[in-house]
Amino acid sequence: MSTTDIPRVPGIEVDPRDLRHLADAQINVELDTGDMILNLGPQHPATHGTLRLVVRLDGERVIAADPVIGYMHRGYEKLTEFRTYPQITTLVNRIDWLSSFANEVPFIHAAELLMGIEAPPRAVWIRTILTELSRIATFYLFLGEMGLQLGALTPAFWGFRDREHVLNLIEAATGGRFHPNFNRIGGLKDDFPWGWAAEARTAMKAIFDGCDDFEDILIGNEIFEARTRGIGIVPAEIGAAYGMSGSNLRASGVDWDLRRDGRPYLAYPELDYKVWTHPDGDSFSRYWVRLQETRESARMVLQLLDGLPSGPIMAKVPRIIKVPEGEAWVETENPLGQMGYYVISKGATGPFRVKIRSASFSNVSILPWLLRGVYVPDVITILASLYFILGDIDR
Amino acid sequence: MSLQLAVDIGWGWTLALKTVLVLAVVPLAALVLGYTFLLKMMSHMQSRLGPMDPGGFHGWFQLVGDGIKFLQKEDVMPAEADRRVFALAPAVVVVSTFLVFVVLPTGPKLVVENLDVGVFYALAVSSLSVVGVLMAGWASANKFALLGALRAAAQLIAYELPLLLAVVGVVVQAGSMSLQTIVTAQQRGSIFGWHGIGFPFILTQFIGFFLFLIASQAELTQTPFDMPVAESELVAGYMVEYTGFRFLFFFIGEFGTAFAFAALAATLFLGGWSVPWVHGAAADVLGIPVLFAKLMLVAFLMFWVRFTYPRLREDQLQSLAWKFLIPIGLANILLTGIFKVAF
User: Fold this and answer.
1) Which residue of A has its CA nearest to B305?
2) pLDDT tens series, chain B, 343 aa
3) How far is B51 from chain A (nearest CA, A)?
4) What are residue B5's phi and psi, to 5 degrees?
5) A332 located within any domain
6) A39: nearest CA in chain B?
7) Separation in Å, CA of A155 to nearest CA in chain B
8) CATH number (domain holding residue A380)
9) Rounded distance, CA B159 to CA B120, Å?
10) Do B232 and A380 lie within an 8 Å CB cutoff?
11) Under 8 Å between Cβ of A305 and A294
12) Chain B interface, mutation test: which of A154, A161, A379, most B Cβ atoms within 10 Å?
């Protein structure tokens, strides 16, 4: 088994170095005043944790921004070399801690691919449901948090309040609110508890209502639009060249979703859903795309609940898991973007080497380009709209 | 005309009494607004459970708990700080709040000092707080604080003008700058010859009222215009290095000024202490609760906006002030003048 072909984003030919002049044009060179270096972070409310931005300011205008990462580096790639496969799901849970379940899926897939095991259909569908639920949980926090970063306190609390619906569901099914550690090679630990599907249907209604609330309080608001429209525009080619993925790239008009365009995984080929894009590429479109995707995910959960097959949730798996020699690359569309694991096995109980491709790392790498010439408040808007999780950057 | 007591106790004692009253009113005002709006209204709007819990009934203990917390905090001063200016800044902010209360009338005879230029004085002293903010921002030796203080100063220049222009319409209608005269003009006025409820100026000066609300929102650094504090950008702006009691001073200043501005708006546009059909000594008794009710209504509007809207950017605020509010304010004055001459 070897690496399969990796789908590429269309329009990747542009080299970011050729586009330097675009960034230079954003900077005001008329007034020559002294600049000030401002440290945003590692402890700053806008950085969701410990991202540090060293910003050179001219007045309130950013001349240069330099992201410093690594304050939360936990060495997961190295740690995986000393763990067995079932133990590693516990680790990868904590990469993007808001959508832990979605992190487990690609790794488990890679292991299953190498072992030649396929999970039974019911397990696959339950995995899909939980992945979409963790997408909703992640985006809900974003939908509220974006308001908070722009100064509107109320949506943030609504986001936290309504996210509980989803977290309660995940807790009821897996036993863990944030770190379910629920995937097993060849299936799942448990089936859904009795009555879970009915609860989930009610919760999805609350999710739709909550999305309407966000739309009412933020999308229709003139101040919100003034603060986000035209702020932090990522042209499609540049976004792709920097390796951005997921909703951030779709907000730049690239119609690319690994659930549809990548190698088929989980139950996505059997689902009917729309991939949302927005042509503008600014902070507003990133918010808008995520809002639509939240609704789409809730719709997908309802579809999945309707078509949930019955049957076992575990395939036949040997008691001691030894993965045959080989290499596998599995990537999935996670809430934050493209997440992939390149697993190299030498036939032992644990992998020889795992390379983790996390979405946020690539998504924030565009920051030096994107932040040139904007105002300090826009730095916060852009950071909030790019939406990264520190664990996903530093691993 | 000034406060006249039933028993003449001499000017010295009267002065002392007035001072104590004003000193007591400001923290009390901050407490009332903080409790009603910051804790209760916000909790309801945002589904917050925390402030609804302490003390049992409706979380009444929360504010007391907060106060105790502030008293317990260590008084931290940055090593690089300009120590005297740092210590003085919160006091300057609170003093400017105290000074506004001096001219607010709460009844026909209940006013600490009825100045002839009352409106002008109130708006002038309220902007003194920016001096305190600048002092705090400079003395903190913190870049975030400095940015916040400079934003506050820029905001003051942009917003003092619409605030004054909004009030000019009222002054033209009442023919006086004295707050007491403005209130009596609203009480004695008539709507097309009907004397029923007097003539609150909001009926003709609604443009001025909205301008005043918007501009005072900026003056109070409340949410659509809270760039000087901007928790998510500048952490807390000029307050970032302040702890404990000094921080509490800023808090009292913020909410005390909000109270004062709500009272000012109620006085200028909603008829202040005046109650329909009530005159003489009864108005002195009823004046305080009536003014309080009116100002709470205005404060409700202010805080409603504060908890709902996102924050503008500093340059957007400037263009809003200079391109829209000031021309609208000037047009309002012109219209008021024409109507004043015509009728």
Assistant:
1) A152
2) 444 555 566 777 777 877 787 777 777 777 777 777 777 888 888 888 877 777 777 777 888 888 888 888 888 888 888 888 888 888 888 888 888 888 888 877 777 777 888 888 888 888 888 888 889 888 888 888 888 888 888 888 888 888 888 888 888 888 888 888 888 888 777 766 666 667 777 777 888 898 998 888 888 888 788 877 777 777 778 888 888 888 888 888 888 888 888 988 988 888 878 777 766 777 777 878 888 888 888 988 888 888 888 888 888 888 888 898 899 999 988 888 888 887 7
3) 13
4) -95, 160
5) yes
6) B143
7) 8
8) 1.10.645.10
9) 15
10) yes
11) no
12) A154
**Does B47 lie at the interface with A, CB-CB under 8 angstroms?**
yes
**A52 vs chain B: nearest CA distance in angstroms?**
13
Side chain identity at residue A177, one-letter code: R
Pairwise CA distance, residues B285 & A255, whole Å: 70
Residues of B in contact with A157 (CB under 8 A): 46-48
Q: Evaluate whether residue A7 is within a structural domain.
A: no
pLDDT digit string (tens) for A88-124? 888 888 888 888 888 888 888 888 888 888 889 899 9
Closest alpha carbon within chain A to B41:
A154
Only one residue has tokens 């170095």, namely A17
Asked whether residue A6 carries a pLDDT value surpassing 60, the answer given is no
Q: What integer is the mean pLDDT of A21-26?
A: 50
Q: Is the ipTM above a cut-off of 0.90? A: no
User: Residue type at B335?
Assistant: L
Domain count of the fold of chain A: 1
**A210: domain range?**
16-394
Relative orientation angle of helices B129-139 and B244-269, to the nearest 10 degrees:
160
Whether the model pTM is above 0.95: no
Q: Which of residues 194-253 of B touch A (CB under 8 A)?
A: 223-224, 226-227, 230-235
- CA dist B26 and B339 (Å) reads 38
Tell me how close the Cα of A389 comes to any Cα of chain B, in angstroms.
17
Q: How many CB pairs under 8 A join A and B?
A: 80
- Closest residue on chain A to B145 (Cα): A38
Gap from B306 CA to chain A (nearest CA, Å): 8
Residue A267 covered by a domain:
yes
Bridge partners of residue A383, in order along the sequence = none
CA neighbor of A341 nearest in space, from A363, A323, A359: A359
d(CA B35, CA A19): 54
**Position A155 in a domain:** yes
- Identify whether the C-beta of residue A145 lies closer than 8 Å to the C-beta of residue A159: yes
Matching residue, tokens 């900026």: B218
Asked if B314 lies within 8 A of A60 by C-beta distance, the reply is yes
User: From chain A, which residues contact B within 8 Å (Cβ)?
Assistant: 36, 38, 44-46, 60, 147-154, 157-158, 161, 217-218, 221, 223-224, 226-227, 375-380
For the record, the structure tokens of A163 come out as: 């996210």
Q: Which helix (H) or strand (E) holds A89?
A: helix A85-92
Sign of CA dihedral A334, A339, A344, A350: negative
Chain A hits for B223, CB-CB cut-off 8 Å, are 151-153
